[in-house]
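Researcher: I need the complex structure. Ligand is iron/sulfur cluster. Inputs:
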Amino acid sequence: MRTALRIINEAMATHTKACLAFSGGSDSVLLMDLIFRHTEHRPVVVFADSQMEYPETETFCRTVCGHYDAKLHIARASHTPEEQWRRYGWPMMGKIAARKWMQRHKQRPLGFKIDVSTCCRMMKIAPARRLAKKLGCTLQFTGVRGASDDILRGLRAIKDGATHYVKADDLTVCNPLTGWTDTMGRRYRDKYDLPVHPSKARGAVTIGCVCCGGGSQFTESFIEAKQTQWAAFRKRLGQEHVPVSFKEVAASVDSFPSPIVAVFSSGKQSPTNWTAPGPWA
Ligand code: SF4
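Model: Output:
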């Protein structure tokens, strides 16, 4: 914890106004507590609404901010996720796998692009940073932990360090939790009894976008949360043959692209035939 506090204080020594990128996830709750409990700094709090959040996320973020007497600012892209995906690529397979696949298939032989990084950048990162700048901030704190999150973040932490200037956004980004392990985070959260996002409490692995094929998928928690909405949608459809259980629908949707995604992920030659399972074909 001492290292994290040193990183925060050193960053604040050269900036007059900072923001905290707050997602409602475990690490961002931890970072908010760390800053508000153990320092005198009071960054403004910015939540990037990707338009694909869990239904309870915004309320949860407001509740946590209320606890620290911090106002929540919400950033949103001016276009929809579907517009993003049609134009720049679909968020499938994970950041590195998508990049490698696109390098091999520059000519788009199947007629579509996949791109997880650009989706994250345009739907979440850039809107949040634009709002931070508008609010007069020159420094942004994030709950990124580096290698404990994923390989790419680990490499970036080695390359950039905990605090670095991002020219594209004209903003300094500081990741005080760089190097924190799962155990360190769990100990801190237990010690201060920090609140947990309702979806995580129900077993969600991440509370990122509910419909992302690049990270979070049809988790048990998502399926459970969507059952009521599905029941209302099914009633409106008025079609008896449509399954009552959303779990059944999720399994069916999941199985549809699985054979082709498995081939792409393995890095083998693009398939020429695709026998799609399920009731679709
Ligand atoms: S988590 Fe997935 S769907 Fe959400 S912004 Fe990032 S790539 Fe897009």
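Model: Summary of the prediction. The pocket of iron/sulfur cluster is lined by residues 50, 52, 91, 116, 119-120, 123-124, 208-209, 212, 214-215 (CB under 6 Å).
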